[in-house]
């Protein structure tokens, strides 16, 4: 027993110090029984039939039970909820008998007051020296904090999914507002369109439209604004409005693109410049087909599918990116479309689709081979074929793609193998280049 004594002064050895050392040493000599009873997890030993043989204080406190209530009187499954007992009988116990050990099983135990305690359970079968099963030792870990964490993760995930659904709904609504709800009926021609969205989360910058002009003519355009999202949508809206408005005053394709270039070049002066590629055309229906004049501003060349089964690009050389330069040069092409002829406009998401893991792209050459196999084809058939091609790229299609086709329905002679336009030379189109 430690006794108090006089202070021995500096360098001395007092009785209190010796007492403290003895108490500290005693604390280091942990009792095995104390470690078992007050461990941070629950311990449970049962006979092979599940009857409880031993339980530590920690688990008793969690369940609000006494040792006398459980030991020799209750089975392990009695401590579980109804669902837990069912799982124990059908899965837990059979696997334990087969394997001799089972761990990390999530169950729910029922406390004396009826509350549920989520736990993680690990059980091991202890055997005699000759391998005969003797008892089952089970360790029980309190999983309430983990369950709360999982519930919070689930709530956050559902909230994120709702937010994404709202964002996708907004993106779809905004995207629809940038495209015509339906194509008009143009006398003597067939029109078809398709828009392939690469991402449901962002608004693309691809656009197209067909609308009436004076004197029975029709204007049409298709293009692609750089970037994605709200900024690209704003530029797309401005571009569509400008093209329509400019064509009212002067529908000449080069003049229309010149006016658009002035507007975009003025708006692009800043830290976030926006440009676009676009093709604008004027369609003039006639008795034996129609005449189509196109002006291109940095846009991929259109595909021309002839009624004689040939296909080629309808080139517009010299067209520059719209909005990048104060004075840009734009190219025009005029072509006559007879019965069975079709022109297909598209954005570069098609030719830039990734075809392999090494970064290979589809390209214009492959697209022309595709068109050779497709011709002759009407506007609806051509667009349907391109739509299937786009779907086939899967995740390789990294950019939105717009497709607009204009064709002249084939006559009875064309269906039999000939048409008035079959005499037109391959690629026979008048081209002019002008500077605005």
Radius of gyration: 40 Å
The side-by-side strand order for the widest beta sheet comes to 7-8-9-10-13-16
The helix-and-strand class reads: alpha+beta
Strand content: 25-35%
Provide the residue-averaged pLDDT.
81
How far from one another are the termini? 108 Å
Q: Output the number of helix runs.
A: 11
Structural account:
With 436 residues, this protein is of the alpha+beta class. The protein has helices at 15-28, 32-37, 57-63, 67-70, 82-99, 144-177, 229-249, 253-267, 363-374, 379-393, 412-415; strands at residues 42-47, 52-55, 101-110, 116-127, 133-142, 190-196, 206-212, 218-225, 276-286, 289-297, 302-305, 311-314, 329-337, 342-346, 401-407, 430-435. The strands form 3 sheets. Strands 7-8-9-10-13-16 form a 6-stranded antiparallel beta sheet, with helices on one face. A 5-stranded antiparallel beta sheet has the order 2-1-5-4-3, with helices on both faces. Strands 6-15-14-11-12 form a 5-stranded antiparallel beta sheet. Strand 1 and strand 2 form a beta hairpin. Helix 7 (229-249) runs antiparallel to helix 8 (253-267). The radius of gyration is 40 Å and the shape is elongated.
Task: Write a brief caption for the model.
The chain has 436 residues and is α+β, with helices and mostly antiparallel strands.
